[in-house]
Write a structure and sequence with these properties.
Helix content: 40-55%
Distance between the termini: 100 Å
Shape: elongated
Strand content: 15-25%
CATH superfamily of one domain: Galactose-binding domain-like
CATH architecture of one domain: Sandwich
Number of helices: 15
Mean pLDDT: 87
Structural class: alpha+beta
Low-confidence stretches: 18-39
Radius of gyration: 36 Å
Strand order of the largest sheet: 1-4-9-6-7
Amino acid sequence: MQIALHSATRKRVALGAAVALSLAYMTLAGRSLLASCFGERVELASLQRASSLDPGNAEYRDYLGRYYALVARDPATAIGPYRAAVHLNPHSARYWFDLASAYQVLGNVKDQTSALEHAIQADPTTPYVAWEAANLYLVQGQEEKALREFRVVLDNEPTLADPAMQLCWRVRPDVDALLRDVVPARAEADIAFLNLLMSKQETAATASVWDALIATHQPFEMRTVFEYFRYLILHKDVDEALLMWREAADRFGLSSYVPTSRNLIVNGDFGLDVLNGGFDWQYQKQQSVTLTLDPSEFHGGHRSLLITFDGPGVNDAGIYQFVPVQAETTYKFSAFYKIGEMEGAGAPHFTLQDFYTQAVLYDSDELKEAGFWKSVAGEFTTGADSRLLLLHVRRLPEGSPIRGKLWVDDFHLAPKRETASK
């Protein structure tokens, strides 16, 4: 629709209206700009001025409340500005939290709880809102509500999983209850729980959390597997270590790295990548020793392990493997080696010893004087409490200089009855 402005009077009226609107807009804009300038200053007079210039802005009211609560240390006076902020914008969880905090300092549990509930209603799924709510509930002693909010945190923010689990365990140290009611079916949450239980030496409880982690069918890093495996080994739970390793191997496509009754030594021909964890070969850097997978020399597969010695202080090659065994059982061991220009006193040995008692169950003859592939074999019987052996290449006598190359390949270990039936 068009308005005809034919007369001078009408034109003047229209111009006056436009000018009035422009002045009103400029006044409002100017007041907002001034309010913004005052609102940026952490001074009482400036914050009061900002609130006066822009009375509909909830942010300035909240700033004013924070000044009274945090700077002036006057939470009672802060209540008024905080209530004004939530009235102007009831959808901000932060404003409600500020109000709840002031009520907490004043010991007003009823109003604190009400403000806290409004904060959660305003933003029920944001993890940082849930984190603040959970901690305030803990201060109030409302443990069930705190655990409910910690579940929101665990379900949405992996970076807060560790501290959240620590607080949950402090409130309710019951692995089954936490898995049922608090910990969501998420890999990050289960890993945080598993790490917490390991740090507290709660070995029996870790199995339930590991089962929950596997049941999520969600991806997670192999590092978690190696850390849990080593924890179980160090706590002498070999059966659980073997079970979890089989489950992890199935999850990560590593079935070839599982010990079998036909050969308890994993990756004995070094045909697979070395995982440096679990029941596969592991290695530690040793002085004057270099480890290399060598595709140019091998006995039965397509490569071997080359151990190069070059200096003093060598007592172990640094390559080893954990081997699960049964008590009071006779085993047959075999391996192949080849020597290249070895110099120095003594020589390397293949050694199998009980990991927990350190008792040597098998020690080969010196590995020397073999410019071709030569076999080593022997039998031994485990003790009444033997559950885990350590296979490694040690050098005897220790300490004196040694130089040369040793290739090793085709390791094999099995119960004697299995060997006889082949």
